[in-house]
Amino acid sequence: MASKLTTSNRAGWAFALPGFGLLTLFIVVPFFFAFFLSLTNQRLISPNPTEFVGLDNYRNLLSISVLTIEPARDDTGAVMRDEDGNPEYPRVRSFTRNNPDYPQYAGMREWFRWHSGDDAKVVVATDVVFWKSLRNTLMFVLVVAPVQGGLALVLALLINQKLRGINIYRAIYFMPVVVSIVVVSLLWRFIYAEDGLLNSILSAFSFGMFEGPDWLGNEDTALGAIKAMSIWQAVGFHMVIWLSGLQTISPTLYEASSVEGASKWQTFRYVTWPGLRNTAVLVLIVITMQAFALFAQIDVMTNGGPLDSTTTVVFQAVERGYGKQDISGGSAISVILFLLVLSISLIQRYLTRER
Amino acid sequence: MAGVSQDNQGLRLITRYVVLTLIAIIFVFPLIFMVMSSLKPDLQLLRDTSSIRAFLPVGDISLSNYTAAFNRAPVATFIFNSVLVTGITVLLSLLFCSLAAFSFVFLNWKGRNLLLSIVLATLIIPFETIAIPLLLLVSQLPWIGLDGLQTGWLNTYRVQIIPWIADGLTIFLFVQFFKDLPRDLIEASRVEGASWIQIYCRVVMPLAGPVVATAAILKFLVMYNQYLWPLIVVQQETYRPVMVGLGYYFQLNPAWGEIMAYLTVITVPVLAFYLVLQRAFIASIASTGVKG
């Protein structure tokens, strides 16, 4: 009987519709729109009508191949070598440009190469920059997710002890989270500059022995510098999630383990960590999703450079869809990003399933 | 023996505080550096980075960087825009999302389970993946304004507000909270003849203080710190929010001291807000972690 009181189709829809309608229009519709656009040649401003091009955008993004190049040989059949004794190779261009013998490589460019014996194996792709952005994004995720998650757990354990004034430390560790990533990025540009704060500190601690590089201007250090800053900014966020997980573990379990005379490590291993299983999955998933969305740091700090060493998938999607007004190309990148994120959350479902 | 173990305990306690404090320094030093640098002329700022003076308000201290920053760019307009957009979005979001959650939890109606699953499914769609199609959509949407029917939402306040009102996370937080409220309360009010809107206004929302605070804080952080969306939909200075304004400001090649002044002006109010309400801020993040 009671449920009759609360049955009302009209009121139900009337209350839910404003919010649900906005959600549909601005999240669900654009989401499906992205799939559709990625199959067309839509541009932001174009005189030509939009055409359906099937999977062309994906083909352009993802086409990749390995080209084996034999070293150049002189008339006697001996390998030609340069002054350092390294074999000389014909240019990759000669295979990928107007070469009727290799139509499958047409329009591709070299991404990287390695040598096997005297042959060079060259990885060529139609869209080298996209592959670099994919690699950079994955490298970012692979480093940031475990390191940030781990550090956040250490911080959570540290501030989960009973000490006078512990709340002050908790508040301080969380502070960078409320500061905009744009502000943080600009601030760290100054810290990372060649004559900036970080190098000054390093130089002071090494008594002038260590001369730091221009962290963001250097291909080898730029992405690492951005990783470190990103971890610093958001680690407090995940610390709080770990902390809320720690607080769900029953104190009687700790009492029992202390009665049994367990060491600190044993207590962590057999009481704390099993109690944190779902929190661990959640933290890793949230960090991973945030890491895949890496954009503001790149836009503010490096613009993808130097030499595409910090470009990311989202940066590429925005760069094309908005910067170059290639809406369909940008949408195809967005769809690939979504599939990556979706597979991560399916893994989460699997890991936290009821057993 | 007792004395030794007490000494040990004292030593341990000190070690703990030292460790905690060293970590704390790592988290605050860039922010202190920012505020201190904003008070210094550029030459001194650069000289000071090589010593502890970088973190101290010493030397030729003044607010001249602030006046210079405000003169170089319409910083006040940017701040006004951000406050306006953030304020309106947070208020409308609380209203629309709580109404929807109220309907999902307390009312029985056909289709509610389907709609609720759609809402929860949107939680895994990263905004970055829909930004570009959304841009195309809003550039074509109609709007009835003071001067009649217009097409296109670019370069307006509405384009910064309306797409952000409803979001899965806010609805989800309200749903979780409402589920724990006693249903007898709602049914008793129905029996007494209260309308649904009365129950929403007089029974449910007055109890919803904690979740309102949580949702408001999370939405505030998202909205005030917005970057990607306003970057692509707002080209006119008049409508630009602070974070995008900052990007353009940086391209004007101002002195570092001025940049630090800009950063301080847009950050310190948020930090002050946070320090006053830090328990609520931290609780709001913690409550996003209790899902599942």
From the N-terminal CA to the C-terminal CA of chain A, the straight-line distance is 36 Å
Task: Estimate the global geometry of chain A from the Cα principal axes.
Answer: globular
Strand order of the largest sheet of chain B: 1-2
Cα distance spanning the termini of chain B: 51 Å
Radius of gyration of chain A equals 27 Å
How much β-strand is present in the residues of chain A?
5-15%
Structural class of chain A: mainly alpha
In the predicted model, the low-confidence regions of chain B spanning at least 5 consecutive residues are none
Order of helices and strands of chain A: HHHEHEEHHHHHHHHHHH
Which percent range fits the helix content of chain A?
55-70%
Most residues in contact: chain pair: A-B, 100 and 99 residues
Task: Provide a brief overview of the structure.
The complex is a heterodimer of chains A (355) and B (292). By secondary structure, chain A is mainly α. Chain A has helices spanning 2-5, 9-37, 56-62, 93-96, 128-159, 166-178, 181-192, 197-205, 222-246, 251-259, 264-275, 277-292, 296-301, 313-323, 327-351; strands at 64-69, 109-116, 119-125.
Report on the structure:
The complex is a heterodimer of chains A (355) and B (292). Chain A has 355 residues and is mainly alpha-helical. Chain A is 60% helix and 6% strand. Chain A has 15 helices and three strands. Chain A has a three-stranded antiparallel beta sheet. Helix content of chain B is 71%, strand content 3%. In chain B, strands 1-2 form a two-stranded antiparallel sheet. In chain B, helix 3 (64-72) packs across helix 14 (256-276), helix 8 packs antiparallel against helix 11 (209-224) and helix 9 packs across helix 10 (196-204). The longest helix of chain B is centred in the N-terminal third of the chain and has 36 residues, at 2-37. Chain B is flat and about 70 Å long. Chain B starts with a helix and ends with a helix. At the A-B interface, helix 1, helix 2, helix 5, helix 6 and helix 7 of A face helix 1, helix 4, helix 5, helix 6 and helix 9 of B. Chain B: Pfam families: BPD_transp_1. Chain B: It comes from Yoonia rhodophyticola. Chain B: One of its GO terms (biological process) is transmembrane transport.
